[in-house]
Write a structure and sequence with these properties.
The structure is a homodimer.
Chain A lengths: L1 H8 L5 H10 L1 E5 L4 E3 L7 E15 L5 E8 L5 H9 L6 E14 H10 L1 H27 L2 H16 L3 E2 L3 H8 L3 H13 L3 E4 L2 E4 L3
Antiparallel strand pairs in A: 1-5, 2-5, 3-4, 3-5, 6-8, 7-8
The first copy, chain A, binds a DNA duplex through helix 8.
DNA sequence: TAAGTTGCGTGATGACAATCACAAAACAAT
DNA sequence: ATTGTTTTGTGATTGTCATCACGCAACTTA
């Protein structure tokens, strides 16, 4: 754990803070598709993502889903902050897109570290800002782009987060993330294939053009 | 300024912090429709909203707009934090919906106060969380609601922010905020009127049912 | 290898929203 | 009062996406 922590966070956190994190942090490994945070959950800590990829989705009362954004290593879940500090409920679901490793930080430390470590303050503020920007991008997609553009952005974004040029996924899964139907996704994917941007296989989409 | 500050922030900030704010804050009055922050702006401070209402809008390269959310008294602009602390550019436009009063806080103080005042830390974190939640609501609207529902939500939300039961606005202005056309808004408004939820006048919409 | 399951392809149809076109009403200016 | 401008109302048409219906291909299991 120390090793991975150093790898991605030694340029972010002071040495003393890294020491504290190792002391109080709880290491956890997530299997693919394991749910880290669910809708009404109250957080008892916040997660630092050491390795892997996590998707954050919003769900409405009908059970319809909408992908908000992905987290990658070095990220934290800003929504958890809310919930952790105010003891409120979390309005999102967080789910591992692939095997991931995280460190849970107890919520008692969050405020304490704000006073002690400048690097922690910067990290918290930066995390919020990155998340706000991701949300704005999501709103941009929904407001200004058509399905085909949104789909292509989804594919390239996800490929980047997963650090792969091929995605192992089904049309139906994409449809859930984008809150549309499988039929629509299949048609648009076929169209993107004809344009030479991707290549389709069963359970797999190869991205040819970024 | 001290008076208004006390009125809305005395339960939020410690006395010492209020004193500091009065010392270093710059009071400013905004006329209706005055632009507070524009797209590429770099912020030299962050605004505390004492009175009035401000709308935060996203704009894409084609100049198309999309309302993100409204700020009311007691709020601050979370996006400014980003821009202020990192010297980066702001991806939004902030515009007074009616005459408003704000206090500009110099960015140098932001981090300093994080260390000194617990109330400031809470305020910053709370502001971010409220903003994240607003963004999620906006995403919910776009992803899960049809135009008619979005429109009705827009009207009631705006009425609440403006503290009026009637809105002085044109169909065209609403269309800009919701990124659709005037024709669509006019038709849906007429429909809402037929349902008895609103009453239409020239340049004015009365909301009968909340 | 036969049967069952899951994933994908595609035509047909409908609903909602975008866009075009134009007229009437409300108001402002001369 | 006349003219011009802004705001609103409404029919007609088009485009995008949602939904239904169904067949086929790929993989799994017995």
């Amino acid at each position: 754990m120390r090793e991975k922590l150093e790898k991605y966070f030694s340029f972010v956190f002071e040495k003393e803070l890294l020491d504290e994190i190792v002391q109080v942090g709880v290491y956890k490994k997530l299997r693919e598709n394991e749910v880290l945070v669910d809708l009404g959950d109250k957080m008892k800590g916040i997660p630092l993502l050491l390795e892997g990829a996590i998707k954050i989705v919003r769900e409405d009362k009908n059970g319809d889903e909408m992908l908000l954004y992905f987290l990658e290593r070095g990220d934290t879940c800003a929504s958890s902050f809310a919930s952790a500090l105010t003891n409120g409920k979390c309005g999102i679901r967080a789910m591992a897109e692939k095997e991931s490793e995280i460190i849970f930080l107890p919520k008692e430390k969050l405020d304490e570290w704000m006073v002690k470590y400048k690097s922690w303050r910067s990290f918290v503020i930066d995390s919020y800002n990155i998340r706000l920007n991701e949300m704005m991008e999501t709103i941009d997609s929904l407001a200004f782009m058509n399905m085909s553009e949104r789909l292509y952005k989804y594919l390239t974004d996800k490929a980047q987060i997963m650090r792969e040029t091929s995605l192992n996924t089904t049309h139906q899964d994409i449809a859930y993330d984008m809150h549309t139907s499988r039929v629509v996704i299949s048609r648009l994917l076929k169209q993107l294939e004809n344009e030479g941007k991707i290549k389709l296989h069963r359970n797999k989409i190869e991205i040819l053009e970024f």
